[in-house]
Every structure is written in C-alpha cells, then in structure tokens.
Amino acid sequence: MPMQIVFATARRLSSFSRTSRVTAPSLIAILAATALVPTTLDGAMAQSVAEEDMSAPQSGLDLPKNVTFFGKGDPNLHKATAIINGQIITQTDVEQRFALIKVANGGEIPEAEQERLRVQVLRNLIDETLQIQEAAANDIIIDKAEIAESFARVASNFRQTPEQFTAFLRTKGSSPASIHRQIEGELAWSRLLRRKVQPFVNVSEDEVKAVIERLNASKGADEVRVGEIYLSATPENREQIAANAQNIIDQIRQGGSFAAYARQFSEASTAAVGGDLGWVRPAQLPDELAKAATEMSVGQIGGPIPVAGGFSILALMDKRKVLTADPRDAVLSLKQLSIAFPAGTTKEQATGRVTAFANALAKNQGCGAAADTGKALGADVVDNDNVRIRDLPPQLQEMLIKLQIGQATPPFGSVENGVRALVLCGRDDAPDAGAPSFDQIMSQIEDERVNKRARIYLRDLRRDAVIDYN
After folding, report:
1. Helix, strand, or coil here: 223?
2. Domains of the chain
3. Predicted confidence (pLDDT) per residue in 223-261, tens digit
4. Model pTM greater than 0.85?
5. Count of Cβ atoms closer than 10 Å to residue 228 Cβ
6. Contact 456, 20 (CB under 8 A)
7. Residue 259: exposed, middle, or buried by beta-carbon count in 10 A (0-12, 13-18, 19+)?
C-alpha cells in the first residue's frame, strides 16, 4: 500500500503569506549546485500511550511522553518513486540528480552519506515539483526554448557545446533532463514570486535615507561578506538536522563547493545565489551569526550555529572597512624572479642556492636592478603589471600590503616547483569606497523583506500537497 501524506486539507493563505520572492537565480553554477535540502520526511506510524497522563505539551501536539511504535518504520527509507499531486518522480529522476551531486564533489561521496543524500534529493525534487505546479496554476509556463537557451549558457561555462555537455552528463550517469528540470523550477518559482510579491512590497524614501545615514556614521567599521546555509529544524528533528549540518560542513572542508551545497541544501532564499548574503556589518546579522562572523578568518567555515528556527552554516568570504578603501584592492606592478632546480634535487642540496637567492634579494636596489640581480643568480625575470593584491594567495597579500616600492618579498615556493620572489615596482591604491546608491539600498531592503516570505510560501505548498510514496 502506498503511504499517503496529506500536509493539509485546506489552504489558509492570506495575501501576506503568499507574497514572497527570491532573487533571480544564477544559472552559471547550476551543474555544481545540484544538491539537496536537508530535512526529514515524517512517516505516519501507529503509536500507543504508555502513560496516558504524561504528554509533551512543548511540541504543541499533545503527544505522550513515552511512545510505543507498532512495527518497524524508518521515515527516511522509501522506494524512490513519489507522486506529488498526481505528478510522478521516478527512481531515475533521483539517481540522475544524485549523479550531479557526485560530479560537484569530484565523484567522491562516502558510502554512509549516499543514502542520506538520496533522501534529500527526493525532497528537493518534491519542492521543485510543487514550485512548478504552483507556477502553472498561476498561468506561468516556462517555454522549452528558454530552458534550452539557459542550458546552452550552462554548457558554455564548461567550455562545451550543448551536445558535448549532454554527452558529458551521460558519462556521469545523469542527463540534460535533470538540469532542464532544475532550470524550469528556478525560473518558474522566481517568476511566480516576482508577480505575486514584488508589487506588494514597499520601501519608503525615509527608510533608505536612514540606511545611508547609518552607513556614513559607521564609516571605517568592519564589514564582512558571508555565505549562509540555513537548515530549519523543529524540536522533534533538531538533533538530526544538526547532524546533517555537520555532515555538510565536513564535505565542504574536504573540498566540496560551499555555493553548490548552499544552492540546494539551504532553505533560505539566498540559496539561488549560492548562499551569498553580500556585504553586511556584523550588527546587521542575528547575534549568533554576528559573533561567529567576527571571530572567523577569511575562508573559514563555521557552524552548525543554532539560530531561531534551525541551524546556520557560515562561510566568511571576505572582510573590509565600511566606506573605506580596502588596501587589497590596490593594483601593483611587480617583477618576479624565479629559480628552478634539476629533477631529483633534495631540499638540503637546494638550501645553499636558496640562501644566496635570499641574500641577493636583500641587497637588491629596486626594480631597476632586478634584472641584473636575476642574471647573476641564473634566475628568470618576468614583469607582472596590473596585479590586484586581492587576487594573490592570502599569505602574500599581507606581506605586499606592507611592502615599500623597491623592496622584495622573501623567497617562497618549493624545490619541485621552483623558488621565486616578487619585487614591488609600483602601487596604485584603491579610491575610498562610496556608499551604495539609493536604488541599490532600496533594492536590498525589498529583497530582504520579500525573501522572508519565500520560505512561508513553500512551507504552505508542502502543507497543502498530497504526496504518495510507493
């Protein structure tokens, strides 16, 4: 017998709860972003009351304190086929989307993780189906030509034609249909939310002016660019969601793409843009996230962080000062001196030459003498102009910020790949950053307000859905 879950028998949506939108999705990273939404699917199972007078009122469900289950049932174990309001999701749909997750993770997913990910893929496909169905109910149909055009753009980002990209997907156990489905879901949902929400969200001029005044008053304060993966949780599944969050963190730390996981794991509307919250001051974040962001280093992943309604995973992408020029945006002119070692050279054998290299650099008299210094050392000398400090490895950024014109960095590298040094020939400092424009701030406030309603909209669609698991 199929197990039928009826999330609700009637819709109780006000115009407020039905007005939400997300920012328009970026399709550039769509292949790497075919992951999952980590939530559980609760099965309906019989239960008996061991102590009838003992209930759990904190859940609001008037449940007994001690629950006895009749028979064995795991709500995370289904045959992969589901029927959502009459529309079928097949085992093939799940496996092809799962194959894209493997591509995003370099083909390496621990065996213990795979079944959990398949369950989450199924949930993601259910959400996509609900979004497409709701859009269709509002006379929004995404033209196949538009989907094909978007697919071609995705293929071009992999430097392939659509035909080549199709063949590539099939070699990985997936298909273009899986990406077509995600494109359709994102476009349909975004278009639906823009139609039903944007006209009803208003931001006054006074609100925008107040933000500009606060920005000017906080000039020089710290500002961070963060990415977030938000996972909703209830008291009943809180432990499981926390474990899911930790699994995501482990996968990202092992080389997984944060943006890829955020696009489909995250239940925040910023999932469409890889979880990127943009530049914010810590004070603009919830207290728990603000504390974590100020303590993290650039490039670090933090979490799972308990927040209202669930957990968040943070990625600190960058830091800067509000309305202040960032020294890492300075553009440099450099000379690079590099020496190579014959194959088989040991670290001990190379030490003498590296020491001589370092001593010569210490005595080097600016860029004008760099060519002669390089010739004396048998080093290659290459000019590098228009190099932005921000684009260099983090270890070099701090050093070059403090370097004076004509000075050189200490030698760096390895025996295998060669040892090199950089001589600073010129620096063009970045101008002071201006405040965002009036329109930019207004758009940001609108997005924040509307995005808060996006989750409500999808939550209500889930509650109204009739879903059969076979």
Report:
1. strand
2. 3-41+76-199+457-469 (1.10.4030.10), 43-67 (no CATH), 221-321 (3.10.50.40), 327-428 (3.10.50.40)
3. 888 999 999 888 888 888 998 899 889 888 888 888 888
4. no
5. 23
6. yes
7. buried
